Amino acid sequence: MGKDFEPKIMVFVCNWCPLGAVDSASRTALPRKAQIKVLRVLCSGMVDPGYVMKAFASGADGVVVIGCPLGNCHYISGNIKALRRAYLLRNLLVGLGVEEERFRLEWIAHAEQHLYVEVVQEMSQRLRELGRLVVPGLFRARGKF
Amino acid sequence: MQEILDTILVVGAGISGIRSALDLAIMGYSVKLIDKANYTGGTLVRLDHQFPDDSCGICRMLPLFERDDPGQYCLRRGVSHDNMEVMRATELIGLEGEPGRFTATLRRKPTMVDRDRCIGCGRCADVCPVVVPKRLNDGLTMRKAIYLPLPYDLPNNYVVDLDACTRCGACQKSCPTKAVDLSMEASERQIGVGAVILAAGFGMYSPAAEGNYCYHHPNVVTSLEFERLMSPSGPNQGRLLRPGDGKEAERVAWLQCVGSRDHKVDADFCSSACCMYSIKQSVLAKEFCGQELDAAIFYMDMRTYGKNFQSYRDRAQREHGVRFVRSRIHSVEPSSPRGDLNLTYVDQGGGMVSETFDLVVLAVGQRPAPDARALAEITGISLTPQGFVKAQPFSLTRSSREGIFASGSFAGLRDISESVIAANGASLAASLLLASRGKGISEIQVAPAAGGNRDRAAPRVYVAIWACGEAMWQAADLDDIVAQTAPMSSVGTVRIVRDPDPFEGSSELKDSVAGSECNRLLICSCVPNIFAGRLRQFAQNLGLEASEVEVIDLRPRLEPEGDRDALRIRGDIVSRISLGVDKLSGTLPWRTPSAAIEPRALVIGGGIAGLTAALAIANHGFPVHVVEKTSELGGNLLNLRRTLDGGQPQRLLAETIAAVIHHRNIRIHKNARVVKFEGQVGRFATTVMNQDATVERIGHGVTIVATGGREAATKSYCFGQSERIVTQGEFERKLDEGAIVAEELGTVAMVQCVDSREKSRPYCSRICCATALKNALYLKEKNPGGDVFIFYRDLMSYGFIETYYTLARQKGVVFIPYGVERKPGVVVENGAPVLTAVDPILGREFQIRADMLVLSTGVVSHNCGEPARVLGLKLDKNGFYQEEESKWRPVDLSRRGVFGCGLAHSPRNITESIAMAQASALRSLRFLSKAQLSAGDATLASVDPQSCMGCRTCVDLCEFQAISFDDNRKASRIDEMMCQGCGVCAAACPVGAISVGNYTAGRMIGWIEAMLAD
User: Fold this and answer.
1) What pLDDT is attached to residue B843?
2) How many CA atoms lie within 13 A of B876 on its CB side?
């Protein structure tokens, strides 16, 4: 993969704890050589695995879902549901030939903007090594969406 | 005569201030919330985790109904509500007038930065030459003289630290939006308010002057500094490094009672919260650094008196291996100027022990708020000798002056849960005052909240691009962006707005939007956060609903990035605008489900808690039914003759009962019980069986459960084998009846924690230590020559009860600690109890022949099982009602619209039970005050019954009991009132039958595609 490869990272960010960190990180240094697309959702628990698959199918090289630290969920246990789902999703992605590191589920508190920057930076670096995601054919089969 | 005002001023925007302000705003009052700091959140902004669950969850203070009235974001980022004006950097400097019609003078300190122009780019801080310690991190990190008070704040504005600023003007020159103005001056403003709530928080003891704690050493920190050391936003971004030399901390000691329970520093009180926060810090440190970290807490008494506190401590000890060392500290001495510390202490056996630690944390006590004296002078209220607000008897919130109320820790020493309860109480007191003067919530009802059913007209989007900061636009060609935006489908008008203040220029915009026949507005701004919490008001000004306005952020993409060319920046902006247009044009017209509220309350339990709550609701003009199981009102209070602080409980009870039975809004059902309970918040239907076996059905909107508790029975310590062995309750009663004469008792022994705080009953009953002190002091008063021995484990004389512990020792009461593994032994000889115990210092056994043995058996809930079953409420593992959230919603029980107070919730003394009853009443009034309760949010889930395959996955997943399975339709059904719109059900539905408001799967997929398209 060429030097100029700019990975696309789709970030689903929960409206509660992590949004503060993501908002404040937007004014600090984010990696230059990555396109970061942030979509606010109400809760990490509302991120259907289908959305993650869709993001990969639509050209994302990596996907990050960010929820509130465990115990802090505004909706009591949405993040735990996201966690349970992530195990299955990860297995599914690996089974389809998507490298495990292309999907991350993170818990970030309001004040942990450095953690967000770290996550995005680590991921963009790893994605540059992995290169562009070649979407496996199976993705095109229509499931729920 | 001047009219009574329905505006309430809340001074201080910490947890309690926010709670009080939200309470009143939700009820419909107009609230002015001020704080002298540049941010809201008070002390909480420095605490990332709080006991007893080690998480935050402050957002759970936001209302579950009418959710769009306050801003829907983390409360640490700021607070807003349609009925609330928040003024930062503002102080109360004068108060004239009388209750119901005060005139308050507010002074706004200049921040030198125009809040509506600042885009938070940070160039000013880059050029600022002044570096000062950052107060947020307790000086552990540095910042500039122009700085962001909180990095995640909303809206996020820079402010100037006037004490540090040299007025060099560099920031002013660097500001791209001309927001910095160093000539800004303080402004004063007068407002009319009906009542004032003081929530100015508390101060912290400074150990600087105390030599033996060695606080000048960099590795000796206060508890608040330790919070920052551990915090991800602190100096080490979450790693626990000691400040002296940056070494990873491996051995940490917590020293309790620094500046508390100490006559030398004029603190004859216990700060109440330190024991618990030290346990929390030690547990978190263990979790952060691994189990090999040595965490030791050095204490006198571990005061775990709150609900579930004892099990928290037990867990810390058992599961996390935190060491608890009962000791007195001799000294802390450095072994090197930046290195280890030697701690010398006297252990329980009286021996001197030395240990070495990396870091020593001083659990510093609370002090009155720094502004307490000034505020007391301005508002004309009295303070206690220690400088705290002097509250009226049996009240935590009523000050010496009518119309001025104290909220949260401003009036005393409290943790979060207690502060929230007291804050609710203060709101109730303010509301009661105004209600009594004819300005209650029913009188101030305004038009129902906005929202409604709008036409499904084809969406036409008005795109307004705020050209904030001309310099920033050089990279992007505005005209080209306009040219590319105009042809997008659904776009009606594109306009560049040059006024930097969107709120000031809104009338011009209004005309323009109206003239364009657009029904949606897309705001493209570099200051998107400025709209947070004000969007609805802004939209209403323009004749739109909040859901018809969308704000998108252009700023990060506008920052000059050397390696990006203008074309790409332009492309990026256009795609953002396109996404915004798409979001808006697909937005469904807002339909707010709402439900009628039955304006009536049901109170179960006629003790002081139930009666207090009933009276408060009835005084607001709403009918209340009180169901009492027995033939007499009063509950446990009937048995209490005195309180520790000399209060007169019988007078209180008599007055309360007199008020209740003569109240035209209150109906009492004696000898009655609830046999059936149906419905949900707003429309409960309860069947009550009266004494004569007649059955009555009562429709009501809210329920308060105060079914009470009782003194536990025991078989320990030979109870029952001699009439000289009694419980504390019996002892007090017999003293009053004359069955026991204090003057005739030579030696009285008391044993605390009977069957409590051990496996069989793992909680602390909170009130027994104070009761023992009360009875011991009574004995000493009547018979100064008699001996009183109190065997205790940890003496729970929290808060100002400590004063009576000191007094008891001065009067000669002997306190003997015992461990749960070596309890005092009791035998009965010739009808009298003989105790055998071990002297902890001498290590020798001794015997006491007592005339009376008094057992503190603790409190158990009064048969909560039965009402819990009928009402469908959860009980905790100790048999008390389980609250929904112990910190942020302490009186809300597991069923929406049901509140709990009194001993059935948790053991508490009279004043605390009353406070809790007031909190329950306040929470109830929130519902009763509305004729219609609306869900108030566009984001609600709904089920397509055609697609639902009936797997019921969603039913169990919903945390808000909003989903049920409809057997007739063979499909899940979502109660829109209960739904909170989190979308968990939609994501889990295997067939995609559930969609969430404007976040439908189709739209989400569309956005994902649009965002990732090149």
Assistant:
1) 86
2) 21
Q: Which of B597, B308, B572, B628 is nearest to B448 (CA)?
A: B597
Phi, psi of B295 (to 5 degrees): -115, 120
- Contacts with A26 from chain B: Cβ below 8 Å: 553, 555-556
Asked whether the beta carbons of residue A19 and residue B76 sit closer than 8 angstroms, the reply is no
The answer to whether the B204-366 and B596-708+862-933 domains have the same CATH topology is yes
**In Å, how far is B482's CA from the nearest CA of chain A?**
23
Burial class (CB in 10 A: 0-12, 13-18, 19+), B414: buried
CA-based nearest residue to A48, from B1011, B937, B999, B74: B999
Mutation for B interface: A63, A72, A85, A113, most B CBs within 10 A: A72
What are the domain boundaries of chain B? 1-108+186-201+369-447, 110-185, 204-366, 461-585, 596-708+862-933, 712-858, 941-1012
Average pLDDT over every residue of A44-61: 94
Residue of B77, B556, B957 lying closest to A81 (CB–CB): B957
Among candidate residues B906, B911, B711, B902, the one with its CA nearest the CA of residue B801: B911
The CATH number of B596-708+862-933 is which of 2.115.10.20, 3.50.50.60, 3.40.50.720, 3.10.290.10? 3.50.50.60
Three-class DSSP labels, B234-272? CCCCCCCECCCCCCECCEEEEEEEECCCEHHHCECCCCC
CATH 3.40.50 is right for the domain spanning A8-134: yes
Model confidence at B504, pLDDT cuts 50, 70, 90, reads low
Q: Which residues of B touch A50 (CB under 8 A)?
A: 1001, 1005
Domain B204-366 has CATH 3.50.50.60: yes
The pLDDT confidence band at residue B66, using thresholds 50, 70 and 90, is confident
Token reading at B30: 């107009």
Segment A81-122, tens digit of pLDDT: 999 999 999 999 998 889 999 999 999 999 888 899 899 989
CA nearest to B153 within chain A: A20
Here the ipTM equals 0.95
C-alpha B355/C-alpha B345 separation (Å) is 9
Cα-trace Rg, chain A: 15
8 Å CB contact of A111 and B151: yes
**Three-state secondary-structure class, residue B781:** helix
Q: What angle do CA B270, B273, B276 make, to 5 degrees?
A: 120
Domain B110-185, CATH number (from 3.30.70.20, 3.30.420.40, 2.40.30.10, 3.40.50.720): 3.30.70.20
Name the range with the highest mean pLDDT among A62-76, B531-545, B852-866, B989-1003: A62-76
- B53–A51 C-beta distance less than 8 A: no
Q: Which fold has domain B712-858?
A: FAD/NAD(P)-binding domain (3.50.50)
Question: B348-362, B474-488, B936-950: lowest mean pLDDT where?
Answer: B474-488
CATH top-level class of B1-108+186-201+369-447: alpha beta
| CATH number among 3.40.920.10, 3.40.50.970, 3.30.70.20, 3.40.50.150, domain B941-1012 | 3.30.70.20
- Which H or E element spans position B864? none
Whether the predicted model's global pTM rises above the 0.80 cut: yes
Q: Select the residue of B939, B982, B1013 nearest A78 (Cβ to Cβ).
A: B982
Q: In this predicted structure, which of B260-264, B298-302, B436-440, B933-937 has the lowest mean pLDDT?
A: B933-937
pLDDT at B561: 46
Residue B319 CB-density burial (10 A; 0-12 exposed, 13-18 middle, 19+ buried) = exposed
The 3 state secondary structure assigned to B395-457 is CCCECCCCCEEECHHHHCCCCHHHHHHHHHHHHHHHHHHHHHCCCCCCCCCCCCCCCCCCCCC
